[in-house]
Description:
The complex is a heterodimer.
Chain A: E1 50-51, H1 54-60, E2 68-71, H2 81-92, E3 98-102, H3 110-117, E4 121-126, H4 131-138, E5 146-148, H5 153-159, E6 167-172, E7 174-175, E8 181-182, H6 194-202, E9 205-210, E10 230-233, H7 240-243, H8 254-268, E11 277-281, H9 285-300, E12 305-312, H10 314-321, E13 325-333, H11 336-339, E14 348-350, H12 353-357, E15 371-374, E16 378-380, E17 385-386, H13 402-408, E18 411-415, E19 419-420, E20 423-424, E21 426-427, E22 442-445, E23 448-451, H14 456-464, H15 472-483, E24 491-500, E25 506-513
Parallel strand pairs in A: 1-10, 2-3, 2-6, 3-4, 4-5, 5-24, 6-9, 9-10, 11-12, 11-15, 12-13, 13-14, 15-18, 16-21, 18-22
Antiparallel strand pairs in A: 7-8, 16-17, 19-20, 22-23, 24-25
Helix pairs in contact in A: 3-4, 8-9
Chain B: E1 15-20, H1 24-27, E2 37-41, H2 51-64, E3 71-75, H3 84-94, E4 98-101, H4 107-123, E5 132-137, H5 140-144, H6 146-150, E6 156-161, H7 163-170, H8 182-195, E7 198-201, H9 210-223, E8 227-230, H10 236-243, H11 247-265, E9 271-273, E10 276-278, H12 283-295
Parallel strand pairs in B: 1-2, 1-8, 2-3, 3-4, 4-5, 5-6, 6-7, 7-8
Antiparallel strand pairs in B: 9-10
Amino acid sequence: xxxxxxxxxxxxxxxxxxxxxxxxxxxxxxxxxxxxxxxxxxxxxxxxxxxxxxxxxxxxxxxxxxxxxxxxxxxxxxxxxxxxxxxxxxxxxxxxxxxxxxxxxxxxxxxxxxxxxxxxxxxxxxxxxxxxxxxxxxxxxxxxxxxxxxxxxxxxxxxxxxxxxxxxxxxxxxxxxxxxxxxxxxxxxxxxxxxxxxxxxxxxxxxxxxxxxxxxxxxxxxxxxxxxxxxxxxxxxxxxxxxxxxxxxxxxxxxxxxxxxxxxxxxxxxxxxxxxxxxxxxxxxxxxxxxxxxxxxxxxxxxxxxxxxxxxxxxxxxxxxxxxxxxxxxxxxxxxxxxxxxxxxxxxxxxxxxxxxxxxxxxxxxxxxxxxxxxxxxxxxxxxxxxxxxxxxxxxxxxxxxxxxxxxxxxxxxxxxxxxxxxxxxxxxxxxxxxxxxxxxxxxxxxxxxxxxxxxxxxxxxxxxxxxxxxxxxxxxxxxxxxxxxxxxxxxxxxxxxxxxxxxxxxxxxxxxxxxxxx
Amino acid sequence: xxxxxxxxxxxxxxxxxxxxxxxxxxxxxxxxxxxxxxxxxxxxxxxxxxxxxxxxxxxxxxxxxxxxxxxxxxxxxxxxxxxxxxxxxxxxxxxxxxxxxxxxxxxxxxxxxxxxxxxxxxxxxxxxxxxxxxxxxxxxxxxxxxxxxxxxxxxxxxxxxxxxxxxxxxxxxxxxxxxxxxxxxxxxxxxxxxxxxxxxxxxxxxxxxxxxxxxxxxxxxxxxxxxxxxxxxxxxxxxxxxxxxxxxxxxxxxxxxxxxxxxxxxxxxxxxxxxxxxxxxxxxxxxxxxxxxxxxxxxxxxxx
Lengths: 519, 304
């Protein structure tokens, strides 16, 4: 069945009430029944929940084959915890038929690909999929299609019972002996633990894995002991060098700077750019550099940013400290400046992924967002964005909060170079739709700006401000004129991944790629 | 094949950015930054053993990339090298708008290049006279001969001083107030104006010193330069801002041109605007202000 963005969704996936994507806000006003976990009572006073090994913790939580384990990705490419847990479960306890429900998976988790090849891991649910895992899933080696959800879609699915987590693992930079966790104070600091919060509340069992045990009580706790079954102390939960970069530096690349400047120009031309506006930006070159130019416009008009959300890094913390932004609230920290600031700098707060972006709760931050600046691997003439699959059709990306912020914000700006190497970024049809075009408002490229024709109001704003803009079709043609028009990818029928829209409908599927042969 | 319109000898040239012709990644779309002219470099930015490769990439860039309204000039190697003749053939065959003569010291240098350009135009079936010329003055001798250089050919649209080489010859270093080059800049400007060609200042090489850069650009504008040579896209905007006429200047120019048209139609040669005497001598300046204002996107009228 074709959905709202023209993608053909196989009927056999449309069971148990699953629907295809119908456009944004389709689920608005509908009711949902929240799931409740089955948790163990710890009535008898306990001195400590520390157990010797991960295997002991798994046994304590009744781990068995067929279960779903959840993980969060605050340790990013430095994470050791996913691999340690899966190794203990599969190699020590001999479990199989396991599903991993993670907030993101990357190159750090390459060893898991082997468990997929062996058929021990049969399901993957994630908001990001890169590295070897992406490759083996694309080859169709997973028993069931992977399910890819946005950062807001994931807590929606958990709270609504579509994903039931048997055991949630919290990688904690610090914990006390009963499981109060924080993202700071240890040797593998990551700042916010926002992605782990919903998991801890909705999982049947919660295991904290830490490499820095601190005195009780570890306060203020991001994940609280009231939800924790066991604490395991290991030598190291991750490689600090890969957890948080030293400091996110603003790009000096003239192309990035030019695009960033145009992003700021567009923002300053809209009516939402006024005292107290709200903002989120990514950490990619031009997205992050937009901060710099935006500050200039804020100074010129003597206005302050009310609040900023997102994954956060140094430049935004800097603005908070200078008093240019009122509050910063984040689910994740990308560099040490942000890690060292969260819950320390006044008005720098932590939030859960649900509070950040869940479309089914009653007050996600993204819904109050004025502007979001996002990157794209590809964007097509329907303004549909792909941030998941590469030009070869292989899973190698992460929707993350992209679809949530795009849908919630009043003005969603995509910033990307027109071409990357020999690939056209602006194209006829994206490989996979990860953010639907009805949520995307403006495209800023190095070859020009295009506004979604759905946003006549923004077109008028740009015209009034004298900002030149062109049709997205002309940008696509320009891109193809430079690098040529690629042949369509060749797919087999088998679906290897289902891409859920944030509201739980099916936005797209990724099929198994046919091996490429030269004729 | 991208046919380029016939180059205009006199056009807006506030900014002229150097890009090594050897780097396809740079030259494939150097126009996107909104610079007035691109200076594709075959000279100092290209290593001695890469000259030929650079010529190939230059030729294919000229033939396949639509640079639109952006002027495309090529800096060729000096007349004391074995490269300049082949450089000229490539520029003309590719259809470059103009050629910058490096280390130009005399009218004869211009004439030597002009002859080679004309021969190449005939060889490749390009309209004779199409390819424009400009000269880079890089030595005391070049500065002393500025006037004869500026007036050596109808193809000449301007001269630029090249600070690095010139300072070397003069045994000076850049100074914050520009005293080290003030005489040379002044002499070149006078010669260019006397010959009726444009005049461009040298590059500012310290990309981190934006305050020093701004001071130099302001001095360039005050001295009467038409534009500046640049090395990085981030330098473009400031020149365009500083060289743009102010709102007051635009309004005044509009008033003068309008009043002049009305008065001269009524047979009056001299009159006053806002208490100031105006006659025909003020008109070219006012018209230039309006043209510049339009080019800068600050004025949309149709008086000029």
